[in-house]
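for the recovery benchmark. tokens below, seq after
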């Protein structure tokens, strides 16, 4: 004969309520970081379209913009995990 496991409805209700107040693991929207990322990507595209004759400054600006993009992306990922 099988024995059925019976969980009182009160315990189920308490578990559901507790789950409602548990800390959320959902990432924040981070609108300012996402806006900064969009602006940096737009700046990178503009630098790509600029004339090449800039004494190496255009190239350096592209490199630094790529680094800034990477840092913002890492910041977003960090915040999403913590």
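predicted aa per position
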């Amino acid at each position: 004969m099988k024995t059925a496991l019976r969980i009182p409805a009160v315990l189920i209700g308490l578990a559901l309520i507790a789950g409602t107040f548990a800390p959320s693991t959902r990432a924040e929207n981070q609108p300012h970081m996402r806006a900064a990322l969009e602006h940096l990507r737009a700046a990178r595209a503009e630098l790509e379209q600029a004339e090449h004759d800039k004494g190496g400054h255009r190239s350096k600006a592209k490199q630094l913009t790529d680094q800034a993009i990477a840092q913002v992306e890492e910041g977003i990922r960090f915040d999403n995990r913590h």
